[in-house]
Amino acid sequence: YDQDLHEAGSRAAQGLCTHHAEGDEACGGEAVVSYEDADGRWQAGCTAALQELVDNGDIEPLGQGA
């Protein structure tokens, strides 16, 4: 997770998960990964989001793509 990649004041910049930030059930999980979504916007994900993104092939496991 890199706070500097995210828009100042956003949930992601505050260290919160944006992957699970839909509606009233927004995730309060701590961000552990930053990633670009399909629209090229930086998002942040909690531990569960990271696993979902890897399992779905949306991102590579940490340390596997650099």
How would you sum up this structure, described in words?
There is one protein chain. The chain is α+β, with helices and mostly antiparallel strands. It has one domain (3-55). The chain is built from 1 helix and 2 strands; from the N terminus they run E-E-H. Strands 1-2 form a two-stranded antiparallel sheet.
Key phrases:
globular, alpha+beta, two-stranded antiparallel sheet, 1 helix, single chain
Provide the number of structural domains: 1
Percent of residues in beta strands: 5-15%
Derived structural class: alpha+beta
Q: pLDDT below 50 for ≥5 consecutive residues: which ranges?
A: none
What's the helix-strand series? EEH
State the separation between the terminal residues, measured CA to CA. Answer: 15 Å
Q: Major sheet: order of its strands? A: 1-2
**Largest β-sheet summary:** 2 strands, antiparallel
User: How many separate helices?
Assistant: 1
Radius of gyration: 11 Å
Question: Which range best describes the helical content: under 10%, 10-25%, 25-40%, 40-55%, 55-70% or over 70%?
Answer: 10-25%
Outline the secondary-structure elements.
Elements: E1 33-36, E2 42-45, H1 47-55
Antiparallel strand pairs: 1-2
